[in-house]
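Lecture 7 notes. Example A: sequence first, then its structure tokens.
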Amino acid sequence: MPIKPTAVAALACLSLSVPVAAQDLDNVVRLDVLDGGRTTNGTYMSALKLTLKDGWKTYWRAPGDSGIPPEFDWKRSSNVGQVEIIWPSPEVFDQNGLQSIGYENQLVLPIKVTPRNPAKPVRLKGKMDLGVCKDVCIPERLDFDHTLDAEADRNPAIAAAMAQRPYSAREARVTKTTCNLTPTKDGMRIEARMTMPSAGGREVAVIEPGNPSLWASQPVSQRQGDTLVAEAEIIHASGAPFALDRSEIRITVLGSDHAVDILGCSAG
């Protein structure tokens, strides 16, 4: 039976660890809910602010070789119709030959909340499961319970985090994105080709298949003139055969100047 990719990530993370007894693991991370007020279209701007001890890291939604993706549970919230998470551009970390993607010391994660009933208060109540790492990797579960303030002023911390989100394909002047798919023994090989100006320095591409049951390996990326080429393998968590919808594939390019968020690709 194939090992689930999440288990592989957890084992990889733990392989970097030193004995827990050698670490001070109290209050490694704190969660606060920030208010940003209600917008003109009736949505609420808010954010989850994670404050980590110095040198500690947590992970992006696609955490790389040695990370654990965060999970959110909003079920106990009141008058919440939709929650949209806006991820700031993450950093790439290399340690012992493994690559992880995330944030160090602090993360302000903006969220847009659409109420079911605009006339009633909005209460965010739930939990966030995440991994945090320094010399040791540990799981954390953080609870939150906060009634959003519709009259709150614009929050500078939320505005700064919003400004750090990746460029869209249009903003980054991506003119063409193709995905060539080839069956393999275990799944499918993908070659993504993005015609775009450089994002700066070493460009790291991240491929998300768009289906939570599918896992993509860390792509090997290289420049070929005005085209960035990224190759990876995609497998199903259970090892079962699968189809891949190119319109659901999400490619993020992380460079030293900026990041780029590309949604969908055409046949290669």
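Example B, a different protein, same format:
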Amino acid sequence: MGRGRAKAKQIKVARKLKYYSPDTDLGALQKELGGEHGSDSGADPYDESDYSDYADKYADVDDEPEESEQR
């Protein structure tokens, strides 16, 4: 026994998290998510040129079969 208080507190915390909605600063959120407007409007975030050094460095790793595949 003795679980009643712990369970009641968990329910209280869960309800508070579910129904409490703090004021959101939408301007700060836009700055954080979008950055500055116009700075890199046409840039591709998945540009592979940034990773070409890694591709060359680890190219031989993918060519070797794992031990479990050799059997």
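Note on Example B: Residues 2-60 form one domain. The two ends are 55 Å apart (CA to CA).
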